[in-house]
Each structure stands twice: as structure tokens, then as C-alpha cells.
Design goal:
There is one protein chain. The protein is an alpha+beta fold. It folds into two domains: 153 residues, Rossmann fold (3-Layer(aba) Sandwich); 129 residues, Sandwich (Tumour Suppressor Smad4). 33% of the residues lie in helices and 29% in strands. It contains ten helices and 18 strands. The protein has a six-stranded antiparallel β-sheet. The longest helix is centred in the middle third of the chain and has 16 residues. It is elongated.
Length: 336
């Protein structure tokens, strides 16, 4: 099992009770735009009450988020500050990617629809409560997944699931952000169908051929447990949970969607589940034969094209996450 090692936090140079906060606030994430002023007030009042310096970097356009995240980390280094992401899982991913390996402590003010990452580590959705956890300054090393040049804190996938995410974003723009809207988008994607991928996968020294409409790599025990998957507890504990779906028709796909909604996906015969620290994936019968070909890959809800073959693995560095001192992974699993 991989042993997570957190890097020394730069916040320690000024003391956890005195370190400034550099916050990347994505106004386009989840509920953030409609509640922006309330969240701003919470941050300003909370930091003022604690005698802490606050640097707020607001993001109006999604395409500027990566650059703002890098700016935040550079500023945090200069000030001996903590880096904080205020947004949904996609925002948290982008800011975490910039923070990983920097030595900065990383905090979260969740503003998304599902908030799997924050919930898995005991961080509440309430902005004031989440801020108090950040101000307390307790950090824990958290496992990070990596594929290509991207990290993933919750999951990575290819095939049907990235298509579902694309459909879901279109629905959210039209109908707003909610779990009902997300389920409806998934339903439409299933009804449209999807061609199966012919993959060559390699893990633990063994290679096999796989035909599947989607390959899902989980790094979040809470999300997997809510779906009812048997290997949920291994995710984040030195392993990645690999889930592939055997080729099925649309009716069976709809049935699996309902099983997942009710937390009963784990007992479905159509699933292939394994746990591993590293998985290499290629299209066709040879991993390297089509090197350079690109395929859509989703990481924490953000979709991008990546070159094959793909290697999903655990990043060598852990994220220094600001979280409750008395919280454990079993607490999150018990809340499912």
C-alpha cells in the first residue's frame, strides 16, 4: 500500500494560527454566483474575527481559473499563507493541481452540487463552518490520483461517463444546478446510447483485453460507497478503484443508472471491479500501437482530450488538506 507523505506546509513558517489565507473564489461554481456576497462576507468577517489576513482572488470566467490558481500559490509562497479553493469539485481540482507539491496547506470552501471531495474529508457545505476548519490549521495528507498531466481527487473516466458529464453541463446551463437535473441528464445520455471501447488494460503486471462503454477510476471512497460499490473503502488508501461496465443495451443501462441512484450498483453482474495503484490503458490490442492518438478523459468533472496510452496512478506527493482534527474516512462512510 502506498504510504502518503505530506510535504512541510509553508503556513508553518508563520504558525498555523497566524497564516494568511489566499482564496480562489470561482463565481461560476455551483451555488457560488447567487450566494457570492454572502460567502464573501463570511470570509471577510471570519478572518477579521480571527485576526487573519485575507487575499481574495475572484474568478469571473472559467478559462482564467488555472492562471488564477497559479497566481494564488505564488502569493501564498510569498506570504507564508494557506491556499483555499471556493467552488465545486472542478474548481477544487484546478486549485489543488496548482498547490500540489508547493508545500502550501490547502483548504476548501465547498460551493458545488455534490461536493464529494469535501464531504469525504468532513468539510461541511456551510461556508462559515468550513472556514473555521481552515482557520484551525489542522492538515492531513490526502491521496491524489494522476492521469497524463492532470490530477483527480474524486474520479477520472473515459467513454460514456465523460459524455454524461458533457450532457449534464448543458442541462445545468438550461435548468440550473441540482441533483435532479444531473440525474435527468444521465437518463438522456443512457437513452442515446454509446459505442463500446475496445481497450487493452494493464495492472499489477497482467494485461487483458476489455470491451466496455465506460471505464471509471475512483479516488473517493464516499462517492463509491454511495453507489454501493464493494471496493469503496480501498479508494484513497493506497489504491484506485477501477470499474468497467460490460457491454449492455439501453434498457440495462437505465437499470444500472437506477441502481446507482439507490446505492445498489455493487451487486450488478454487469460490472468489473478491481483495485490497483496503477492502470495503463490503450485502444486496440497493443498498448503502444496507437500512441499519440487522443481520447476524451474526464477528471473531477472536467473533460479534456489526452494522448494514448493513458496511465492512471497515485501521485507521489500528497495534498496537505486542512480538515477537522477528529475526522476519519470511516466517519464519511458511515454517513452514506
Amino acid at each position: 500500500m502506498t504510504q502518503l507523505q505530506a510535504e512541510p506546509s509553508s503556513a508553518a513558517t508563520t504558525g498555523a494560527t497566524a497564516a494568511p489565507l489566499v482564496v480562489v473564489f470561482n463565481l461560476g461554481s455551483g451555488q457560488a454566483r447567487s450566494q457570492a456576497e454572502a460567502v464573501r462576507t463570511t470570509m471577510r468577517q471570519g478572518c477579521a474575527s480571527a485576526g487573519r489576513e485575507l487575499h481574495l482572488l475572484e474568478v469571473q470566467q472559467p478559462q482564467t481559473l488555472p492562471a488564477t490558481a497559479r497566481e494564488a500559490v505564488a502569493l501564498a509562497h510569498k506570504l507564508g499563507a494557506m491556499v483555499v479553493a471556493a467552488g465545486g469539485d472542478g474548481t477544487i481540482n484546478t486549485v489543488a493541481q496548482a498547490t500540489l507539491g508547493s508545500g502550501c496547506a490547502f483548504g476548501v470552501l465547498p460551493q458545488g452540487t455534490f461536493n464529494y471531495f469535501s464531504r469525504a474529508h468532513g468539510i461541511p457545505a456551510d461556508a462559515e463552518q468550513a472556514l473555521q476548519i481552515i482557520l484551525a490549521g489542522h492538515t492531513r495528507p490526502v491521496q491524489v490520483g494522476r492521469v497524463g498531466d492532470r490530477i483527480f481527487l474524486v474520479n477520472a473516466s473515459l467513454g460514456l461517463y465523460p459524455q454524461l458529464l458533457k450532457e449534464r453541463e448543458a442541462w445545468k446551463r438550461q435548468f440550473g444546478r441540482s441533483r435532479v437535473v444531473a440525474f435527468g441528464a444521465g437518463l438522456v445520455t443512457m437513452l442515446r446510447g454509446h459505442r463500446s471501447l475496445r481497450l487493452t488494460v494493464q495492472a499489477e503486471g497482467a494485461e487483458r483485453q476489455l470491451r466496455t462503454p465506460t471505464l471509471f477510476v475512483g479516488n473517493n471512497a464516499l462517492q463509491l460507497a454511495q453507489l454501493g460499490l464493494a471496493d469503496a473503502s480501498s479508494a484513497g488508501q493506497g489504491q484506485l478503484a477501477i470499474i468497467a461496465l460490460r457491454p449492455v443495451g439501453r434498457i440495462r443501462l437505465l437499470g444500472l443508472l437506477l441502481r446507482g441512484a439507490y446505492g445498489r450498483l455493487g451487486d450488478a453482474d454487469e460490472l468489473i471491479q478491481v483495485s490497483t495503484a496503477q492502470l495503463t490503458v490503450g485502444i486496440g490490442r497493443q498498448l503502444a500501437a496507437l500512441g499519440g492518438r487522443r481520447i476524451k478523459v474526464a477528471t473531477d468533472g472536467e473533460v479534456a482530450k489526452m494522448a494514448l496510452p493513458l496511465t492512471f496512478k497515485i501521485a507521489p506527493q500528497a495534498l496537505n488538506l486542512l480538515c477537522p482534527a477528529d475526522f476519519s474516512a470511516t466517519d464519511a462512510m458511515g454517513s452514506v
